[in-house]
Amino acid sequence: MLICKYTRLDSAAFVPHLDTLRAVTMGIRRIGAKAAYSEGFNPHMKIFFGQPLPIGVESECEYFCVYADEAPEEFMKQLNTSLPLGLRIMAAAKAEKDPNVANLMYSADYTVTMRDKVVNLTEILRLCKGETCEIEYSSKGKTICKDVRCLILDARAEGENKVYLRLRCGNENLRADRLMAYLCAQCDIACGFDVRKTHMYDCAGSDLDKLFFGSCR
Amino acid sequence: MNSEIKDLLLSVDKPARYCGGEFNTPPIKADARLRFLMCFPDVYEVAHSNLGIKILYYMLNARLDTACETCYMPWVDMAAALRERNMALFSQETHAPMYSFDAVGFSLQYEMSYTNVLAMLDLGKIPLFRKDRGDGVPIVVAGGPCVVNPMPLTDFVDVFSIGDGEEAIQALADVLIAGKQEGASRETMLQRIARIDGMFVPGISRGKVRRAVVDSLEPAFFPTRVQIPNIEAVFSRAVLEIFRGCTRGCRFCQAGMIYRPVRARSVETLKKYTQELIAANGFDEITLSSLSTCDYPCLRELLAEIKPLCDERHVNISLPSTRVDSFEAEFVASTRLSSLTFAPEAGTQRLRDVINKNVTEEDILTSCRYAFEKGYHSVKLYFMIGLPTETDEDLRGIADIVKKIKYRYKQYAVSRKPLALVVSTSTFVPKPFTPFQWEAQISLEEIERKQNLLKSILRPLNVKYNYHDGKTSRLETTLARGDERMNKVLYAAYQSGCIFDAWTEFFDYDKWMAAFSACGVDHEAYCGAQDLEAPLAWERIETGISREFLLRAREKSRQGELTRDCRKGCNLCGIHKEYPSAFRANCTGGKKC
Q: What is the pLDDT of residue B516?
């Protein structure tokens, strides 16, 4: 079994989770790697992904696990010739069993790049770091009001256009794009922003890279 | 991707339809002398199921001097967002606006997509009417099966490419590049295009315009590396075109007439393409595509060659199962048990003889027996209602077939599951260049009466019955047999908000009726019986199938006489005269494997 770290950047950030899975599966099929398939009427490649990313959010740290009997380095090299724009394997290693990334992920770092200089970025941080942080968003046609303070683990700013966030992910998830959209609206910041996920951690705070590959990739 | 496009994409549903970046996208040459935009007037998922535009797209991009990009009909939310932001519809690959291309080509696969062509031009900021387009505005080209009757769109389309596109597109690209280099006017360019075989240029072409036909598919380009859509296409599988055309001669079938003669690829070539399709695309299924795959003379040999290749890479072969004999049943059963599909089209042998559908009840029942013995438990049956000379007796015949299939299941089924039987009916649409091109279509009331009758007959048999909306079929006939007066109707319908007419949730019959009446055009006249003596609107085009042959076949249909399969001897349809080299290469004596 192989565990792989991959990026989802550029146009790939607009591709839904299941279609990303399909793109990777087709890539593996194209390179002719020896992957295992499920038994039964409709055999599927045995491949497992982490939890879905919101549409439009880029990531440098997604993971999947595939039952394939291949040398990791060669597999990575080959597969990188066979993936659509924005998907790229950054690391691959053998694993004894499926580490269940979806269950393991606890928190994630995000870099938010404002599209213009913002003088009151600290205002955003102040809202994040208060005793409560109630945000409002709409989901499936409903307006939802929720205190998300406990899901914000850290928030920092750099210069006039970067915000670094560490937020809970996995079972108790806070979407960085959703949080920023609400906070920007509160602070009258209209320039827009781009979100990129950069690292993921388990509940002990260990970088998933270290768990899977021994060092950060 | 710039932030303007990014924000636009974040504001719409399914942005992966528009973001580009598909795997297997060829490099788009920035310094190309010709920039061509290949358009499909339906959504991304439907467009990616079409083989025709893939052939032309990869052919153009294989040229050193040409860059071809793609564009699809945006969904209504995207169309509204583009208008709201005053942005022009753009290409997938480089997000360049439609109006910035040298030429824009549309593939017309079904009549109900015509208003989408207008919508795409409008969103792409190209003047809708060709008379309003000056130098520097893209030349608008249309191809695909619908353009055998180009008349309904002559006000909007500059050039119709009739017939096979493989040679025509190269000639078109050459003319466009030469013209551009010389600084030729639009008028001059169009005049030169009109000289290309198969090109109908409204206002310029004189006399009949002949359909372009490639003599052989063997040397013709075939794309084995295709763009993999970001979201799953309606038909997500590798497509292997094994032959073009059909020898059966079903009298209602336009494709069976306008793609003549049958041109097949060799097993050797198809094996090579299969290897390339598997290696380059990664689909888990490959379909052997043609109008009648079981008629491929070397089907057994082909399957024997490609099955090991496919098995090794976990690729399933999908085989249309219209004429399943024991061999194919065994073959299909060894891959994946899906449902078995038959298209008898008519419920009685009498009516099947009228339409020249050479399938007998015994064929179907024998195939069912084989399939049931292999474990199949699901059958789909396709029929048409409103065929010429049809009576209620023929509709009752559908129920008889259903009963017999159920009985066969009882006798031979090995599956313990109950039989799942689905009957679907569409309404007969008389199409140009078929022996039934003069026939009347049944009225809306009659369509509904027949559908209700079938419902009542099939209900006690516990089968699922699906049927097509009659209003759509009526309009389809009107547009398929339309003349130049249809241009203003189309424009009026589009102006009143008609788009996505092929989508039931958007199709608005009343708006169309209002458009007809505002333009003073009687749509009923197009659905009624056409005068056998009078010239027909689409006879401006020469498809190679002679009027005499069509009239002869029509006459035979009235006598219930069959026209033999072309492989058993020539029926003198006209191809031998109009396309002698293609005839000699493909029709003489019939191919044996």
A: 97
Directed axis angle between helix B486-495 and helix B470-480, to 10°? 140
> CA dihedral in degrees (B49, B51, B52, B58; nearest 10)?
110
Q: Are the C-beta atoms of residues A5 and A209 closer than 8 Å to each other?
A: yes
Are A29 and B313 a contacting pair at CB < 8 A? Answer: yes
- Tell me the Ramachandran region of residue A96: left when phi exceeds 0, alpha when psi lies from -120 to 50, beta otherwise: alpha
The sign of the dihedral angle between the CA atoms of A185, A189, A194, A196 is negative
Contact B148, B432 (CB under 8 A): yes
Read out DSSP for B443-465?
PHHHHHHHHHHHHHHHGGGT-EE
pLDDT, residue B324, reads 53
What does pTM read for this prediction?
A: 0.93
- Cα gap B436→B551, rounded to integer Å: 9
pLDDT tens digit sequence for B493-525: 999 999 999 999 999 999 999 999 999 999 999
Inter-chain residue contact A83 with B6, CB threshold 8 Å? no
User: Quick one: closest CA in A to B227, which residue?
Assistant: A84
Place of tokens 């890479």: B313
A194 in reach of chain B (CB within 8 A): yes
- How are beta strands B34-40 and B103-107 bridged, if at all? parallel
Using CB atoms, pick whichever of B19, B23, B284 lies closest to residue A14.
Answer: B19
| Fold of the A107-201 domain | Alpha-Beta Plaits (3.30.70)
Enumerate the β-bridge partners of residue B238: B286
B positions 212-271 inside 8 Å of A (CB):
228, 230-232
Q: What is the pLDDT of residue B358?
A: 82
Smallest CA–CA distance, residue B212 to chain A, in Å, is 36
Cα dihedral B557, B559, B565, B570 sign: negative
CA pair distance B486, B217, nearest whole angstrom: 35
State the Cα–Cα distance between residues B146 and B111, nearest whole angstrom: 7
Side chain identity at residue B293, one-letter code: T
> Is the previous residue joined to B418 through a cis bond, with omega within 30 degrees of 0?
no
Q: Which of B1, B228, B282 sits opposite A11 (nearest CB)?
A: B1
Alpha-carbon Rg of chain B, whole angstroms?
24
Of B9, B16, B228, which has the smallest distance from its Cβ to A16's Cβ? B16
ipTM of this predicted structure: 0.91
CA geometry: angle at A200 spanning A196 and A204, to 5°? 150
Per-residue pLDDT, averaged over B359-375, amounts to 85
Beta pairing, strands B378-385 & B139-143: unpaired
Sketch out chain B's domains with CATH numbers.
Answer: 3-208 (3.40.50.280)
pLDDT at site B294 = 82
One-letter amino acid for residue A178 of the chain: R
Mean of pLDDT values over B518-547: 96
Both tokens of residue B10? 């974040």
> pLDDT tens digits for A132-161?
999 999 888 899 999 999 999 999 998 889
B564 Cα distance to chain centroid: 25
CATH of region A2-102: 3.30.70.580
Q: Are B177 and B33 in contact (CB under 8 A)?
A: yes
Rg (CA), chain A: 19
| Structure tokens given for A42 | 């409709």
Q: How far apart are CA B294 and CA B237, in angstroms?
A: 19
Is B22 within 8 Å of A84 when comparing Cβ atoms?
A: yes
Q: B50-100 pLDDT, tens per residue?
A: 999 999 999 999 999 999 999 999 999 999 999 999 999 999 999 999 999
The yes-or-no verdict on residue B326 having pLDDT over 50 is no
Please, are residues B340 and B307 in contact by the beta-carbon 8 Å criterion? no
State the span(s) of chain A assigned CATH 3.30.70.580.
2-102
Q: Looking at the complex, report in whole angstroms how far the Cα of residue B361 sits from the nearest Cα belonging to chain A.
A: 30
Strand A47-49 and strand A58-66: pairing? antiparallel
